[in-house]
From TrEMBL:
Domain of life assignment: Bacteria
Keywords: Signal
PROSITE patterns tied to this protein: PROKAR_LIPOPROTEIN (PS51257)
Signal peptide: 1-22
Organism: Massilia horti
UniProt keyword Signal present: yes
Protein name: Lipoprotein
Length: 232
């Protein structure tokens, strides 16, 4: 009985000693508290700047060289335009104009006039190119060549219906066209344009008639070349 009483009396002393032997938590670090209701802290998402690649920096000497080249190209184009200016009244000394679809041929001893005996195509294709022996050789600038054209021709409307087969009428027609062609180093200063050969407003739309064209004369009334506007 006395031993039991002594054991009970020593129990508080043993508990105090056990608590004293435990190591205290580090300073500034709170003791771990287990609480299943508290979610663990979320991992912060990376900032958008982390995926942005830095833009390459162009070295200053490269920028200076580009500016120098651009300035030289502008000077060359300006000088070229000045060399072209004296030929504005007769650009056929600089350019060759031909027709490549209907079959027009240059008229002898006439500048800017083309002839065709007959055609059924209804279209023509103009081809403009720099002459190989041009006195104002183009190499740097960009230009827009404007053409004012007139086409004179005879239209024959022939009836093909059974009620009037063989009957026909002839009309003298003239059509006018304005065409612009872009010439630059990228297309080697050559360009084409396709346009109607005749005035479709005057051609009969009736299925009972068939039209044909003869005595065609294509005349270039005016040709001008201007420096193309450069888009900034």
């Amino acid at each position: 009985m006395m031993q039991i009483l002594r054991a009970v009396a020593l129990l508080p002393v043993l508990l105090v000693a056990a608590c004293a032997n435990q190591a205290p938590p580090p300073r500034g670090v709170p003791a771990h508290v287990s609480n299943p209701d508290i979610a663990p802290p979320a991992t912060p998402a990376p900032t958008p700047l982390a995926n942005v690649k830095p833009q390459p920096v162009v070295p200053l000497p490269v920028v200076d060289e580009l500016k120098r080249q651009q300035a030289q190209q502008k000077k060359d184009a300006d000088d070229e335009a000045q060399r072209l200016a004296p030929y504005q009244k007769n650009l056929f000394q600089v350019f060759r104009l031909s027709e490549t679809l209907a079959g027009f041929k240059p008229k002898a001893k006439a500048v800017g006039v083309y002839e065709l005996a007959a055609s059924k195509t209804g279209k023509l294709r103009l081809a403009l190119a720099q002459l190989p022996n041009s006195p104002a050789r183009l190499a740097s600038g960009s230009y827009v060549v404007s053409l004012d054209l007139a086409i004179d021709y005879t239209e024959k409307q022939e009836c093909i219906a059974s009620a009037c087969a063989g009957k026909s009428e002839q009309f003298e027609r003239t059509t006018n066209h304005s065409v612009q062609l872009a010439l630059n180093p990228k297309n080697n200063f050559s360009a084409t344009a396709t346009l109607p050969l005749v005035d479709v407003k005057t051609t009969s739309a009736s299925p009972n008639y068939r039209s044909s064209y003869s005595n065609l004369v294509l005349t270039v009334r005016r040709m001008t070349a201007s420096v193309a506007k450069v888009q900034e």
